[in-house]
Amino acid sequence: MLENKWSDWLDNTEEVLSEIPEKPGVYMMHAAMKILFIGGSQNMKKSITEALEKKCVSKATRIRFREEVNFDEIKNELIVDYKKRHEGNIPQCMN
Question: Would you say which domain of life the source belongs to (predicted)?
Answer without folding.
Answer: Archaea
